[in-house]
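Q: My collaborator sent me two sequences in one message, no labels, and asked for predicted structures for both. Can we handle them in order? The first one she listed is below.
A: Yes, handling them in the order given. First sequence, followed by its structure tokens:
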Amino acid sequence: MKRLLLLLLLVAGTTGGAYAQEVYTQIRQKAVVQRDDQFGSDVVRQIGHFKVNALDYMAMKMKEQMPDSTASFLDKQALAMNSYVSLYVQTLIEMKAQPANYQVKVMKLFIDASVSNPLFNDRDQELVMGYVADGNSLTRFSLDTDWQRALLAVDSELKKMAKQ
């Protein structure tokens, strides 16, 4: 009886981890499709490229620095990154009619939230800050970002700006 219970717990545990990783995998697969779509817009392809690189970086660093972390942690970070980028794009679209200095302020807010909330404290700044340094990139965010914290930070700041 104990063996059966142990086996059921083991199967349930591996199924839960696989499910959690499915969200990461789905976000990554969608980003790959966006990145590789030769008929898609340059903006969508650029965003897809960033997402794939951010997700790959995240998975690689988690294996190196957090080998005991759960698949659900990776899942939550991937979901937060996707939400962060979506909020950024939505905000850019909504503020098209705003003055240029306001638009720059909001874009800087997103960049700063990304840079100010590292997840791994990676010392390879050339790699981590590659998108931030690229003035032509739409997604000028650090790869080393705790996307959950960054999303909360940017959301809080956007609400403060809306009240002004």
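Q: And the one she listed second?
A: Here it is, processed independently of the first:
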Amino acid sequence: MENNQVKLLASLAKKIHSERNDRTKIVATLKSAKIITKNENFTGHYSNLKKIVAVSK
């Protein structure tokens, strides 16, 4: 990988990490990906995620 590509990826990772995501945006993303239901429960394929995800409502 080129040195310039590494720098770009590192700066992108820093930008993503520094952005504040609000709960509604995250829930909407998970719903659109069909990871959670409209009642905010994990779907069947992702039910194991509830073991590691802390949910605050």
